[in-house]
Every structure is written in C-alpha cells, then in structure tokens.
Amino acid sequence: MAVYTLLQGLRVTDAIALSLFILLATSLVVKHRSSGLRTTRLNGPTSYSVIFGAFAELTQSTEPVSLYDKWVREHGTMFSLPMAFGARSIVLSDVKAASHFLSKDTYTYQGMPFVKNIFDLLFGRGILSSEEDDHRRLRKALTPAFSNVAIKGYLNVLYDSAYKVKTSWEALLESGDATIEVQKWMNGVAFDNLGIAGFGYDFGCLNGNRPPAVDVFESFESPEHSGFISRALFFLSPVFPLLTHVPTESNRMLKSMKHSMRAIADELLERTRKELSLSPDKQAEKSMIGLLIKSERALSGLTMSSDEVMAQASNTLLIAGYETTSITMTWALIELSRNQDVQRRLREELSQLPDTDLSWEQLNLYLPYMNAVSLETMRLHSPVPHLLRTAVKDDIVPLGAPIRTAAGVTVSELVIAKGTSVYCPIGHINRSEDIWGPDAAEFKPERWLGHELPSGARGVQGHHHLLSFGDGPRICIGRNFALTNFKATLSVLIRNFSFEFPDGPDTPIVSTKALLLRPKIESEKSTSVSLKVTRLK
C-alpha cells in the first residue's frame, strides 16, 4: 500500500522509472547480502524503508553531517547503515580507521561503480573516476599545473577577479543598493578563475555573461531534482542503463550537462592546440590546459588519449573546482558576518602588510589569522559531507578504540569483505566534539593559533588535520590552488568592505540541495545569501 501511494504521487514517467528501478535493484540483493556475510556485523540504525533503507534519509537530508552526528551518538564511531533492499554499508568515523581507509592502501577502497559510471557517462574516464595505474598516470600529468610555482603565476588572475567584484560592488553601493547577494558573486569568482588560470578562457561571469554550464549546475537546485525519487534515479541510472531511456527531467538534465561540458572542453582544447602549434611557448605548457595538450604527445612520457584530455578538462574545471570553491568562499563571508570580532581581527592583520596585492609568500606565510579563518571555514563547512567507496578486496581495518559488535564481542579491528560499501563521514569527523573538544560546533579560528590542537584532532590525517580535501594518494590535487584563491579573494574584499546580516547575526542559515549542498538564508529563495555590504575606502 505504501509503495502504491508513493507511485500515485509521481508523474507517469517518474512512476515508470521508479518501478523499473525497483525491479532492477532487486537483482542486486543476493550479491549485496553475500558480500556482507564475512564483514564484521555491527549495530546501527534500523531500516527507514524496506526499499531504500537509510539511503532515502541521507539523500533527502540537507544536513547529512547532523545525521551522522546523531548516529554516532546512538551507535558509536563504527556502525552499520541499512541501504537499499537489505544491503548494509559500514560507516567509519573512528580516526584510525578513517586514516587507514583513506591513505593506508587507497586502491583497496575504490569509487562505487555507479559513481564512476556517472563521471564516465558525463565526461569520459578522468582523474575523478580512474583507479590504480590510470589514476597515477593522470595525476602525474596534472600535478605540475598545481605546483606552488604554477600557482604563483596564477595570482594576477585571482586578483583581477577580486577587483572586478570590488568595482561592481562599489557601483551597486553608489546606486543605493546596500544589500548584495554574495553567493552569486562567489560563483562567478570561482568559475572565471578556473577558466582563466586553468585554460586561458574568460567565461565572463563577473562581467554579466552566463555560460551554459552555469545553467546546468543551477538546474540541480530546481524542484524537479530536489526530491528523493528524482535524485535516486539520477544517481542510479548509470548502473541500470535502461533507466537512461526513460524521459525524466533528471535524464534530460544529465544529457544537457554532458553536451554543455563537451562543448566547452572542445572549444578550449582545439583553440589551445592551434596556439601551441603556431607558437610553441614553454610558458603556455605550464597552464593546466597546456599540460593536458602536452600529455597527448608520446614524447612527454605521460600520454593521454584525446578523450582522456577532454575528461580532465571537464572534471577539473567544473566538478572538482567550481562548486567546492564557491561554496567555501560563501561560507567564509557568512561566518565573518556572524562573527564581527573575527572580521575585525582579520582586517587588522591585513592592514599590517603593504596596501598592495599580496604575494604568494605573504598570503601563505605571513597571515596566520587568514590561514586560521580558511582552515576553520573548511573544518565546519566541508562542501563534501562524506566519501563513499567499495572494498575491492578483503581488508582488516585497525581501530583507535575497541568496539562491541552486534554479537556482543569486543574487537580492536574490523573485517571488511570484498564488495562492502564504506562511508567515511568527513564532515562529522571535522567537527566531532570527541575529536575537537566541546566547542567543536563553534566558529573559532583561534583554535589554530598559539597552542596545540586537541590530541584527537592531531590524530586526524589530511591537510592540517582536516579531511575536507581527503587524504592519501587521492588527496585533492588542487587544494593549494583553492586555498590561494580563497585567501587572495578574501584579502581584497575584507580590506575594502565590511559585511553583516541585514537582520542581525542570528539570521538563520540552512543548506539547500544543488550539485553539492549550498548555504542560503532561510527566509530567502533559492541559494541566496544577501548581506549588508559597506564600503570602507
């Protein structure tokens, strides 16, 4: 009766697709159940749905980290999560177990097949979906583009975008508009910087242009894609190819995204190939796209096919960089508006340096409070709440503290059988009171200054004891570019403007679903974050 009622509330195409999904997913039950027989049986939440398990709640939630917080309080740092059709996933929030999962032998745990299929379907095989030798080869080809030397060469681009925002905001303020929707501008900064620094292409978002890819990203925010059924079909359609032929809004969006991404990558790559063939410039080859083109040449020793080059352009530009960077910068402005003392202290630190564009060394070595603000923003507001991988071979996972299994046995290590899906809730680990102390939920940049972090936090691997960038051989290749982008942009904005909420610091902020979770003011539409902006100079 419950399933019949659910189907009644759907459009015909979604109802057909859901029915197909149920029938096809049933074929996986035996496989999932058998893979779980040798995995250590753990306690965990009860199933919320016979069909979808806890997957429904995780997918629908706009606060997945809070869900993990709740489950850890109830079931401990290691627990079993009910998934679709009786399958069980293991959740690792024990710090030692998470470190093993992420960095001990990264290719023991690989991307879930349906996630890799999504990336392959959209872009072709790229660094986000490759494994083992392919991943090492692709990462080696891209690494020079994200070295500190390369990032120093991108600084002028980052400052140009920040000054475009400054000029535009000054014009808005002169016209009498003191309230500015900052998230839209941070989106533009992220998109334009990745386009120019990475590919020598100005998308012109900060000049009012609207590339088709932006429309595709924002389509994830529409009601058609916010419901659980639509999201489930979108993420599972690559597993069951038949579902891609059902004319749902999600499938139309997926095809639109693919065509948009390919069109951008085609144009950028073809133009750069011509420029390099006419005037082989060694400096040009240091850009991201120049290195990708170079990797097509057999003599480089890092050969990639044309399809792989296309995939890296799409992956790196629009998936790995745009969403995460714009979300993090928006959260920084939110927290600085909530915490005026932090904003003033950051401005005071910046005033101690020359009133010019800061060098890479100044941004990264002489601004400890700026660094603390960036780390604290990433700690509290990781754009990616969890990592999901599957064990491709049996594994023994060491634990930092003993746990009791579902059978009542105390163990200090966990058996993970081949085929078991494993979640690492990085958002929860980043803000757990057991790891970071009783003030873990507070925005306190001071925790990074003048004294040691709590012992639990020091045990966390990753960039500065944070898992926001992942860890191990799969740690985010663009993390230093992202941090420099963050600091350069914020240095210009904080020197020239002050920020506050029009309705006071207690203005409720919630998350809303897009490709990743984005912040918004609760009373505003879509993903709007409107702040009162005041010019200082």
What descriptors fit this protein?
Cytochrome p450, 537 residues, alpha+beta, five-stranded mixed beta sheet, 12 strands, three-stranded antiparallel beta sheet, 51% helix, disordered N terminus
What does it look like?
One of its GO terms (cellular component) is membrane. Keywords: Heme, Iron, Membrane, Metal-binding, Monooxygenase, Oxidoreductase, Transmembrane, Transmembrane helix. The chain is 51% helix and 12% strand. By secondary structure, the chain is an alpha+beta fold. The strands form 4 sheets. Strands 1-2-8-5-3 form a 5-stranded mixed β-sheet, with helices on both faces. The chain has a 3-stranded antiparallel β-sheet with strand order 4-12-9. The relative contact order is 0.16. The N terminus is likely disordered.
Please name the CATH architecture. Orthogonal Bundle
Radius of gyration: 23 Å
Strand neighbour order, sheet with most strands:
1-2-8-5-3
Mean pLDDT: 80
Distance between the termini: 65 Å
Cα shape: globular
Pick out the low-confidence regions.
1-13
CATH-assigned homologous superfamily: Cytochrome P450
CATH class call: Mainly Alpha
Number of helices: 22
Proportion of strand residues: 5-15%
Binding site for heme: 476
Pathway: Secondary metabolite biosynthesis; terpenoid biosynthesis
GO molecular function, one term: iron ion binding
Keywords: Heme, Iron, Membrane, Metal-binding, Monooxygenase, Oxidoreductase, Transmembrane, Transmembrane helix
